[in-house]
TrEMBL record:
It comes from Pseudogemmatithrix spongiicola. Keywords: Signal. Residues 1-21 form the signal peptide. The keyword Signal applies. This is Lipocalin-like domain-containing protein.
Length: 125
């Protein structure tokens, strides 16, 4: 095989690997989170629907009610934004999690630059 053909084949393989790297996990389902803050631990429920590397769904907690989320999965990382319930209501929360196993997450939530908290998540089966 010539060097040019080999180089082209390696380039195609690299692009194929990069394209599929973001879709290693399907996180669709119901997740129980534990968000540990200075004020105690909250237990929101996250309902995710994943299509390719995009995730959408709902986040439901006693403190904030039900809110929509949108985000992405890339490799072993899930990132999503929890939108305010209405215009001018609440802050945008940004969650970033490491996918530990198919059914567990751990990460950090940023409270719009005003601090944050650690969290874990377990998929409910």
């Amino acid at each position: 095989m010539s060097r040019r053909i080999l180089a082209a084949a390696l380039l195609v393989a690299a692009f194929a690997t990069a394209a599929t790297a973001s879709i290693l996990h399907d996180l669709t389902g119901r997740w129980q989170l534990a968000v540990v803050t200075d004020n105690g631990t909250g237990y929101p429920v996250l309902e995710l629907k994943q299509e390719g590397d995009k995730v959408t769904g709902t986040y439901t907690s006693n403190a904030m009610g039900s809110r929509t989320i949108s985000g992405t999965v890339y490799g072993d990382t899930l990132s999503f934004v929890l939108s305010p319930s209405g215009a001018g209501e609440g802050m945008v929360l940004t969650y970033t999690a490491r996918i530990v196993t198919a059914d567990s997450l751990n990460g950090y939530v940023d409270f719009a630059g005003q601090g944050g908290a650690r969290f874990t998540g377990t998929r409910q089966r």
